[in-house]
Request: fold
Amino acid sequence: MNSSGPLFIAQEALCYYEISTIYNSCPRYLFYALLIASCVTRWTGWLADVFLGAAATYAGTAAIEAFILLASEQKRPKPAPVTIPFISDNTTLWNDFPQLITETNQVMIQPGSLELDGDAVLAIVVTGYLVFLPLQCWSRILTHQRARNFLFYLWNLLMLTGSICALVYAANKSKTPTQYMFCYPGLPPYDTTSNDGWQSSWRTSTWNESVWETFSNITRWSLIGDICYNPCFNSSQTLRQSTSLQSWVASKDSELSHPARFWDKLIYSRRYIYSLIILCLVLNLVHLTFKFLPYRSRIPSAEIIVIWKERKNIWNGFKGELKTARSKAKEELVHKEADLSNGNSPLSSHIRPLFSMTFLRAFMRVLADFLILFGLVFSMIISPFTIIAFVAWAEWTIYNDGPAQESPRQVGQWSYLVSIGLLLISAAILTLKYRLATMSELDEEIEKLRDDLEKLEQRKEKRLRSATAPLMTLENTTEDG
Reply:
């Protein structure tokens, strides 16, 4: 330690909780692969159920964590000033302290930390929602049963609320105040420092007094267990142990060398991504409600293949309806004004039917059908583009959060892939149960199916009786009257 230099220095630090093992790179990439496999194999039945079920449960866990993160967000204390030794900008300390605070004698302390799980949760739940909603819109196989359709609605609702919570939490994360660490000038810190457990005795009354007392007394400084004094280790998070909190000093060449500048860039790019998400959401909701609209459209189906096959009929239907409406409007005008050709020019006789109520009603119906068609086709184009753009943006964000907590070689990462593999093997064996069954097992299965069939027929008859009872009551009332 140099006695002629400052007693201590202050430099910017980034305090954060690393991404949890379950949301690290391998499980996330496996989740994306499961979503792709669900879309590709949606007509296979059991195979799509395995892929979609595994992806949905993983995304559901992330959605629940999004609820907890937003509901238990850190309550930061009021900022407090800490007086620091003045250091000029041309100091040689830059070599050891890349985020050194110079040209000032005061910094504001407000302990806080970043929860990097928020970025991973955001990537998972929004991607899940952007895939699950179009699947419900486009896939007749996955939603051909009322129970499956109802399950999709519940799951999409979970993903929507989870996405909203994750987006709000991500926006609030950008408000995390700048963190500082205080060090002796002759003892630069490691790149990353872990929290060994904060002791209440390390803060006496105010942050200013705590910092000065720590560096004025070498015995007290040795008790903190770290080379530097990190006030951010005083903060906590509901889902984390305090010892998992880390403090990182970035180099000048790093993207995170100035956290405020990094978050400003991130917020700027969010505008485009969020706009795409909102547009995709609106279009897919229009696509989804197409099935329940009371309006009888000329669009034969919400399936892109059916629309493509019937494109000529759709176009001819548009032209035919407008042509018929124009002819009918012209006839109405001729009946109302027998001398229309004498009192008006030939041009007006062609234009006036276009402003009649008959033609305008037909034009509005064609316009509504065209907008529905445009929304259906555009949603099928914009949805995949939005998913790819969002995943790329989210993974870029997570990549800039720092190195992963675990490598792909560790069991916490590849265990998820093994679990899916074992689940696929089990599901495949179960699909062959009739081929592997003995004669007695087949007889038992036949009896069980007969019992189930009898119960279903009884339930159907009961529903028919309950549906026809009001009609019979109405007929009896009419006859008595």
